[in-house]
Design goal:
Elements lengths: L4 E5 L9 H9 L3 E7 L11 H20 L4 E5 L2 H12 L3 E5 L4 H16 L3 E5 L21 H9 L40 H6 L4 H22 L12 H5 L5 H10 L5 H25 L22 H9 L5 H13 L4 H14 L4 H11 L7 H10 L14 H8 L4 H6 L15 H16 L3
Parallel strand pairs: 1-2, 1-4, 2-3, 4-5
Helix pairs in contact: 3-4, 5-10, 7-10, 9-10, 12-13, 13-15, 14-15
């Protein structure tokens, strides 16, 4: 038996369509799975509370699946640049394989580890697995990155079709002896004092099997209605695949090809096209982050550095966070977020617009709250979408677009199903008075944006 291969799992907690795992299988030696909880390296953003909950359960599922197939999952906590070489020495690994990451700090970490291990004559290889189009491969005619979605979409549609997904690894040879591993429970990823995750437990089942089941269910039962009811706040046509993609329990290649197979004609074709455009929107977010690694903290449009944010009204921020604004859709969305770890996509835009434009609170504070509360918060989509709503981002919504929560409610929740589920106090007279006047605060926001646009 030769030197084992290490497969370093990151945001790819699956056994299907996993190029790094496939490379290890092809090498033909025993395989050790490794996950490193790195919340110490400079520039790596610590996970939010809801994300930690999901990670715990997804790792437990992955460990069980690896064990069932003959291998093992090794857990270590610390700086990845320290942990990887130490684990290689400890296990005698002759090769390390991983799927690529695209954040700025993560790329630097991976580059340093690759150089160090290769200097020690360890085989190291990385692979494309979590994006359909790697960010540096999509360029404008002037050889620059894209900053507008529509031409980006047209560009990727002209590129070679995404490869077919790789089959599931059903037999994975493990080492002769189980390597030492951290105890998952000792990482304390689950909330205990208090345990606020009851809503997450009743809403989600993390792990690859549940991800695959949800994809099949969505394609069989919901895809046909996607184009026509995806914006309905209480509708069931949304895919609910975003946390699965964020944690890599399923790959975009699997989703892409399975959707094409179900496309058919008529409303299914229209819905499939609309759904795949959302996958491309995710690609665009990562494209932007790759070229602007500080997207979560710095305005993509630097002219917005001069935006006249007033002094923070902390009471307003806290009412928004608790869903006590007196605005029905906003309150319902924020309570859905707290209970389930997700929020309907259009409601996300409404709540974000209300914070940044009606309350004139810096988008970074909203982005951070979502980062802590969302099970699907990833380093690209979360800040990208917040900047889109705030007007400071790539392909941003027009600065003068201020979502009117009442208009949105009338259009997308006409029978108050969503409000009844998440903020019933707005129907029985128990809601607080609206904290601001929507019309007046809209005009205040437009005046502030005009000053930025005209340099005043």
């Amino acid at each position: 038996m030769g030197s084992p291969s290490l497969v370093w799992f990151r945001d790819d907690l699956r056994l299907t369509d996993h190029p790094a795992l496939r490379a290890a299988l092809d090498r033909g030696e025993p395989i050790i799975g490794l996950y490193v909880l790195d919340d110490e390296s400079d520039g790596v953003r610590p996970l939010g509370g809801a994300a930690k909950w999901w990670l715990h359960h997804s790792l437990a599922s992955l460990a069980e699946r690896l064990g069932d197939r003959g291998s093992t999952l090794m857990l270590r906590r610390g700086r990845a640049s320290d942990v990887l070489p130490a684990v290689v020495d400890e296990t005698g690994a002759g090769a390390v394989f991983w799927n690529r990451r695209y954040g700025g700090a993560e790329r630097e970490i991976d580059r340093g580890i690759k150089e160090r291990l290769r200097d020690d004559d360890v085989t190291v290889a990385s692979f494309a697995a979590n994006l359909l189009f790697e960010p540096w491969t999509v360029r404008t005619g002037a050889d620059k990155p894209y900053g507008v979605y529509s031409p980006f979409r047209r560009a990727v549609e002209k590129m070679p079709a995404p490869r077919a997904p790789l089959p599931e690894a059903r037999k994975i040879p493990g080492p002769s002896s189980r390597p030492d591993s951290d105890d998952l429970d000792a990482w304390a990823l689950l909330p205990t004092t208090p345990d606020w995750a009851g809503g997450l437990r009743e809403t989600w089942e993390p792990g690859e099997p549940a991800a695959l089941a949800r994809l099949r269910e969505f394609l069989d039962d919901d895809l046909g209605d996607y184009a026509f009811s995806r914006d309905a706040f209480a509708g069931g046509a949304t895919s609910n695949l975003s946390p699965r993609l964020r944690w890599g329990e399923i790959s975009p290649y699997q989703i892409w090809h399975a959707t094409l197979e179900h496309r058919g004609s008529g409303k299914h074709a229209e819905s499939a096209t609309g759904f795949l455009s959302e996958i491309i929107w995710r690609e665009f977010a990562w494209h932007v982050l790759f070229h602007s690694p500080d997207l979560a903290t710095v305005n993509w449009r630097r002219q917005y550095d001069d935006f006249p944010w007033p002094r923070l009204n902390r009471a307003h921020l806290e009412k928004w966070q608790r869903g006590e604004t007196g605005i029905a859709v906003v309150d319902a969305g924020m309570k859905q977020l707290w209970h389930t770890g997700v929020m309907h996509n259009r409601v996300r835009m409404v709540t974000a617009s209300f914070l940044t434009k009606n309350l004139l609170i810096d988008w970074r504070l909203g982005e951070q709250w979502f980062w802590d509360c969302l099970v699907d918060a990833d380093a690209a989509s979360n800040p990208f979408n917040w900047q889109w709503v705030a007007g400071s981002g790539a392909d941003a919504a027009p600065y003068f677009r201020v979502f009117n929560p009442e208009t949105q409610r009338e259009k997308f929740d006409p029978h108050d199903e969503y409000i009844r589920r998440w903020a019933p106090e707005h129907l029985d007279g128990g809601a607080p008075e609206p904290m601001v006047d929507l019309k007046q605060t809209r005009q205040r926001a437009l005046d502030a944006y005009d000053r930025v646009r005209h340099g005043g």
